[in-house]
Amino acid sequence: MSHTAHIRSHRKPRRSASTISMRAGVAGGVLGTLAVVGASGAANAAEPVTQTIELPTLTSDMASQVAQSADVTQQTAADYRLRAERDAAAAQAAKQARADLADAQKKAEAKKKAAEAKKKAAEAARRAAAERAARSADRPSLSVSASTGSSSSTGSAASIVSFVKAQIGDAYVSGGTGPSSWDCSGLVQAAFKQVGVSLPRVSQDQSTAGTQVSLNNLKAGDILYWGSSGSAYHVAVYVGGGMFVGAQNPSTGVVEKPLSYDPPTGAVRVL
């Protein structure tokens, strides 16, 4: 035994049985309560929660409104489709109208051009006829003048006549200047060159190279021309006796012909 066991203040007081029983009961009650609460909580947690949502009832008025809305939508779609068809038809009609108008304008323009061309052709034919008539009126009668014209050729004129007659039968070649092929102005130029006279190369200039003389007063060695003075398209040499020698064309070559064969427009005298 401890040496302090006999001292009362140093001993632990003993618990009574009633106290222990009471504490045990209290503890058991607490544990029981916790068990009941836990079980209840577990049961509540396992049970699903269901919530009910009430939908509005479709009344007859609402059904009527829905039907009317569907009808309106369908009618609107039909209107849009009809309008689209009308617009497409109008666009096609406008396109066809433009094409028809363009075609009509082209035809009218072609007709107008054809009429203008016909008018110009008629005018050109009229002018040509008037010019031929004027040339015919200006030409004097050559039959008398040819017979009365000087048929004798002396001096330089005789040399010119002799030269051109020597070339009869030669070929006609455009741009030809001899010695065996000629064009009209090339032959005339070469003939006058034999007597020391230098003439221009082309017929237009040769028709103004000398003094203009009347076709009623021709002399051998005169230059005959066809066309207007200064714009003649053909020349030849008068050789007397109403005859001329010239390089006419590729078919005939250099030939001697009477004035009546192709009456000239005018004449110039160089010698």
Task: Please outline what is shown here.
It contains six helices and eight strands; from the N terminus they run ααααββααββββββ. The protein is an alpha+beta fold and 271 residues long. It folds into two domains: 62 residues; 128 residues, endopeptidase fold (from Nostoc punctiforme) (Alpha-Beta Complex), CATH 3.90.1720.
How would you characterize the overall build of this protein?
By secondary structure, the protein is an alpha+beta fold. It has 2 domains: 62 residues; 128 residues, endopeptidase domain like (from Nostoc punctiforme) (endopeptidase fold (from Nostoc punctiforme)), CATH 3.90.1720.10. Helices cover 52% and strands 13% of the residues. It is built from 6 helices and 8 strands, in the order H-H-H-H-E-E-H-H-E-E-E-E-E-E. The strands form 2 sheets. The protein has a 6-stranded antiparallel sheet with strand order 3-8-4-5-6-7. A hairpin with a 2-residue loop joins strand 5 and strand 6. Helix 4 packs across helix 5. The protein is rod-shaped and about 140 Å long. The termini are far apart. 18% of the residues are buried.
Strand content: 5-15%
Gross morphology is: rod-shaped
CATH class of the largest domain: Alpha Beta
Poorly predicted sequence stretches spanning 5 or more consecutive residues: 33-46, 135-153
Oligomer: single chain
Give the number of domains: 2
Give the helix tally: 6
Instruction: Specify the helix fraction band.
Output: 40-55%
Radius of gyration: 68 Å
CATH architecture of the largest domain: Alpha-Beta Complex
Largest sheet features? 6 strands, antiparallel
CATH topology of the largest domain: endopeptidase fold (from Nostoc punctiforme)
CATH homologous superfamily placement of the largest domain? endopeptidase domain like (from Nostoc punctiforme)
> What structural category characterises the helix and strand content?
alpha+beta
How many extended strands? Answer: 8
What is the succession of H and E elements?
HHHHEEHHEEEEEE
